[in-house]
Design a protein that fits this description.
This protein is of the alpha+beta class. It has one domain: 2-Layer Sandwich (Alpha-Beta Plaits), CATH 3.30.70.100. Strands 2-3-1-4 form a four-stranded antiparallel beta sheet. α2 runs antiparallel to α4. The longest helix is centred in the first third of the chain and has 29 residues. The chain starts with a helix and ends in a 9-residue tail after the last strand. About 12% of the residues have low confidence.
């Protein structure tokens, strides 16, 4: 488990990256849905499985997210060790918390995802655990 200070730094990093790298995408989506929520997810890979986890996202997960209307804002890897060896951070945008619940349920039930997950974990789990936060923009944020 990451110390509280380290988790805070990761959340701050991800929010800053959202502002810096995802502003165009976010601005476009705001015009479509003013009441959206953001979901920050941090995947802690099992030892030696980080490359496999990234491959699964690169080759399958993002396509499946798109199929289930899950809007990817961005994906990041920390610069500093040890987190750079095992931590994948990403942010999704959802129209609402309820839509996120519905979309995740559809994603997890998708037969292609079930197969991709099983195939990618034939030699063991890729993910140790996931930290997941739903976030609302503040009234002083550039993103509303």
């Amino acid at each position: 488990m990451l110390p509280l200070m380290k988790v805070t730094h990761l959340i701050t990093f991800a929010c800053g990256a959202l502002l810096t790298l995802g502003l165009t995408s976010v601005t476009q989506s705001q015009a479509q849905s003013p009441n959206h929520v953001y979901e920050l997810r941090m995947y802690h890979a099992m030892p030696g499985k980080f490359g496999d986890l990234q491959k699964r996202f690169r080759e399958h997960v993002i396509t499946l997210f798109n199929r289930h209307d899950m809007n990817s804002i961005g994906y990041w890897v920390p610069q500093d060790k040890p987190d750079s060896d095992n931590l994948l951070i990403y942010i999704l945008e959802h129209p609402s918390r309820e839509a996120a619940t519905k979309d995740w349920a559809a994603f997890n039930a998708d037969p292609e995802w079930v197969k991709v997950k099983a195939d990618s974990e034939v030699n063991g789990k890729l993910v140790d655990h996931v930290d997941d936060y739903f976030m609302n923009p503040t009234d002083f944020s550039k993103i509303k």
